[in-house]
Amino acid sequence: MFYHYNSIFILVTEKTGGLFDFDGTLPVIGLQFIFFMFILNFILYNPLLDTIDERNIYIKKSLDEATNVLTNANQLNVKYENKASKARKAAKLDLLTYQNLYKDILEEKMKSSQIFIDEFLNETTANFEINKDEILGSFDKEIDSLTSQIMNKILT
């Protein structure tokens, strides 16, 4: 009989379950897991997530400001390019106007200079003709006088 009690004792003291043992420790371990999860969440994860959220907000603000600055810069760039283009066109137009004006002035000066030169040449030519006639006339008188003197000396 002893043997028989011994086998009951072995049956009672033998562990049951194996891998999935659902005795009283499972709910305790579940409660410990949930308790530690809340403690870690409160101590570690919440401050870390708050810091990450603050950093994300800061990055979003910085990106928004950078986008606004870039948009303003592009608008100013377009505005000043338009102004520069208008200024270049106006400068080209002014340059062409002044070139034409100076060309007309130069042509007028050239015409007046040509007229002055033509008048001067005509006057000088006329003076030369008059002087030539006077010189030839005086030469004729001198030649006549010298001829008569030579004839007088020869005849005398």
UniProtKB/TrEMBL annotation:
GO terms for molecular function: proton-transporting ATPase activity, rotational mechanism. GO terms for cellular component: proton-transporting ATP synthase complex. Pfam families: ATP-synt_B (PF00430). GO terms for biological process: proton motive force-driven ATP synthesis. It is a single-pass membrane protein. Keywords: CF(0), Coiled coil, Hydrogen ion transport, Ion transport, Membrane, Plastid, Transmembrane, Transmembrane helix, Transport. Residues 63-90 form a coiled coil. It is found in: Membrane. The keyword tRNA processing does not apply. The chain crosses the membrane at residues 26-45. Belongs to the ATPase B chain family. F(1)F(0) ATP synthase produces ATP from ADP in the presence of a proton or sodium gradient. F-type ATPases consist of two structural domains, F(1) containing the extramembraneous catalytic core and F(0) containing the membrane proton channel, linked together by a central stalk and a peripheral stalk. During catalysis, ATP synthesis in the catalytic domain of F(1) is coupled via a rotary mechanism of the central stalk subunits to proton translocation. This is ATP synthase CF0 B' chain subunit II. The gene is atpG.
